[in-house]
Amino acid sequence: MENINNPIGLNPFFVSGFCDAEACFHLSIGKNSKYKTGYYVNPGFSIGLHNKDLNLLEKIQSYFGGVGTISKQTKNSVQFRVFSIKDLKIIIDHFEKYPLITHKQIDYKLFKQALELIENKEHFTLDGFQKIVNLRASMNKGLPNSLKDSFSNTTIIKIAFVPLNIQDPNWLVGFAEGEGCFFVKTTKTNNNVSLGFQITQNNRDVLLINSFISLFNCGRVESCNKGLAVNFIVTKLSDINEKIIPFFDKYPLIGSKSKDFEDLKKIAKIKTSKEHLTSEGFEKILKIKSGMNSLRF
Q: Which keywords belong to this entry (predicted)?
């Protein structure tokens, strides 16, 4: 079903997949003496990206009907932010129809509960505000030290994770846009070239990452970052040519990562033809590689 607020036709499953990778739900809490509780709470939804993906961020904002703002976050990054309750309900409506399937769904559910409390003005009461603090303490990295002493009766709220299958390949495209990487490794001594595709995620989503093996019918899963994360990785050239490239040709990436994919295709073609074994072919690969990923901008 097409989103009526979606003038550019961005696939809704792509949006959810990308948000599973890059979005953040947050509750900002600080002191304000004008309130009975002595504190304020500002709910928000945000996505921060490198400047090179400003166009993608603008497409996502357009998908959500133009709500929120996009502003420069640092020298090399931009951020899409939504704060108003009215606009946040548009965000909530999307995820009710096209659910998050990583463990980020837990933060989403906690955030949704907090938004309902705020909408019902319960945050103006001491009991209601404590409920919001409990939710905040259960989200993301927990309650900051600056608030722990002030809210010593805080209780962590446990919400069960509900495993969901990938319903549409566009979710996987969106997730890869955020967490995926097309890479090339070269060794000049023997004109050795290895290339691959990987998706990295926190190890709490290892079951989801393992499912990519059957979805792509190739690859393997490896532990990384001292066991804190897992990688789905494909390095076999025939799998790159026969599984990965056809998938992303059929379901295109739309951010800056699409350029890395196109470069990977060029290098895969050179290696498949064994042109990389010549000095001229190897130099072609080095030139293409020099503009990929973080070297592109």
A: Endonuclease, Hydrolase, Mitochondrion, Nuclease
In whole angstroms, what is the distance from residue 126 CA to residue 197 CA?
Answer: 51
Note the pLDDT tens digit of each residue in 134-161.
999 999 889 998 899 899 999 999 999 9
Is 57 exposed, middle or buried, given 0-12, 13-18 or 19+ CB atoms closer than 10 A? buried
Alpha helices (H) in the chain, listed in sequence order:
12-22, 54-63, 85-97, 104-119, 126-138, 145-148, 169-179, 206-216, 237-239, 245-250, 257-272, 279-289
Are 26 and 135 contained in the same domain? Answer: yes
Task: Please give the radius of gyration of the chain, using alpha carbons only, rounded to the nearest integer.
Answer: 22
Per-residue model confidence as pLDDT tens digits over 219-235:
999 999 888 999 999 99
Question: Are 131 and 185 in the same domain?
Answer: no
Measure Cα distances from 70 to 76, 90, 246, 266 in Å. Answer: 14, 17, 34, 34
- Give which of 16, 26, 82, 80 is closest to 51, Cα–Cα: 80
Least confident of 96-100, 105-109, 141-145, 272-276: 141-145
Q: What pLDDT was estimated at residue 294?
A: 74
Range of the domain at 102: 12-148
Per-residue tokens: 101: 């399937």
Is residue 222 included in any domain, yes or no? yes
